[in-house]
Specification:
- The chain is of the alpha+beta class and 281 residues long.
- Helices cover 23% and strands 21% of the residues.
- The chain is built from six helices and ten strands; from the N terminus they run αββββββββαααααββ.
- It has helices at 4-18, 124-127, 140-146, 154-158, 169-179, 192-214; strands at residues 23-28, 50-54, 57-62, 65-70, 76-81, 90-96, 100-105, 112-117, 252-256, 259-263.
- The strands form three sheets. A four-stranded antiparallel β-sheet has the order 1-6-7-5, covered by helices on one side.
- α1 crosses α6 (192-214) and α3 crosses α6 (192-214).
- The longest helix has 23 residues, at 192-214.
- The protein is elongated.
- The two termini are 27 Å apart.
- The structure holds zinc ion.
């Protein structure tokens, strides 16, 4: 499933290819995505001003509004020469001047393409989202304040998009290992110092994933439908029962809020680890 780093990598990949270009045509080949694809008749002839991102939504800003695109469970966007033969599951195509076509391919059709007119209220899908993980507003003090009285596990708390966006299951597992905080601790019991550390580690794992995605940007202009998602070397996710890279103990795997959760019972304590794990490569 595309996570925040894949969406940001997609944004960086497509923006230089389509920004500033006039839209010539929109081809909706199958409108049955998560919500029906209904686009205004005057969308063609508008110019694409910018491609930004909020949480996992790509925001294509045109002259008279914004196209929100979500990749859902299985979607990807490719920029191709117009007229390139379609692949199965190429559902929506935007054809720009200078013969560039932006295509959404989504086999499971959980993605969406929605039009939001300029000047309207903020889109309902974006209204209740927490801060971006790289925003100044996201810091240890913010988390500590929001966690007051919360009995939920800290990992579940961090994965709540109303708290902060973009912390998917893999990144929550990895950040909590690096911060030395056990995923099952109640959010209200985590110290301010541990939250400050968690913020740094969340930013670190996301930034590394985005950097690695950057090496695959060329894939966005390839025609094989492979968006070039990357695999980050992981410390705990997917490694239950394997040795901790810090202390060698067998990693513990549990389900927490229905999500696979892996931690080291030595290195991850209630109040955060006093020392940063020294990882053996
Ligand atoms: Zn350990």
């Amino acid at each position: 499933m595309p996570e925040l780093p894949e969406v940001e990598t997609t944004r960086r990949g497509i923006e230089p290819l389509v920004r500033g270009k006039r839209l010539l045509a929109v081809n909706v080949r199958d409108d049955r995505l998560r919500w029906p694809v209904v686009l205004p008749e005057d969308l063609p002839q508008q110019t694409l001003r910018s491609v930004s991102r909020r949480a996992k939504y790509l925001l294509l800003e045109f002259d008279r509004g914004t196209l929100l695109i979500h990749l859902g469970m299985s979607g990807n966007l490719r920029v191709l020469p117009a007229g390139t033969p379609y692949l199965k599951h190429d559902h929506v195509e935007l054809v720009f001047a200078q013969t560039q076509a932006l295509r959404l391919n989504d086999p499971r059709r959980f993605g969406c393409v929605l039009w939001h007119p300029r000047g309207a209220q903020p889109h309902w899908l974006l209204q209740s989202l927490g801060p971006e993980p790289f925003a100044d507003a996201f810091d240890g003090v913010y988390l500590k304040r929001l966690a007051r009285g919360r009995r939920t596990a800290v990992k579940t708390f961090l994965m709540d998009a109303r708290v902060v966006v973009g912390v998917g299951n893999i990144y929550a597992n990895e950040a909590l290992f690096l911060a030395g905080v056990r995923p099952t601790v109640r959010a209200s019991r985590v110290t301010l110092a541990a939250y400050q550390r968690i913020v740094l580690e969340i930013r670190g794992v996301l930034a590394r994933a985005i950097d690695m995605g950057g090496t695959t940007l060329r894939d966005f202009v390839k025609q094989d439908g492979n968006p070039g998602y990357f695999k980050q070397s992981l410390n705990v996710y997917g490694r239950a029962g394997e040795p901790c890279r810090n202390c060698g103990a067998s990693l513990t795997g549990i389900r927490l809020g229905q999500r696979a959760t892996v931690y080291c019972k030595n290195c991850q304590k209630s109040q955060g680890f006093a020392q940063q794990p020294v990882l053996k490569s």
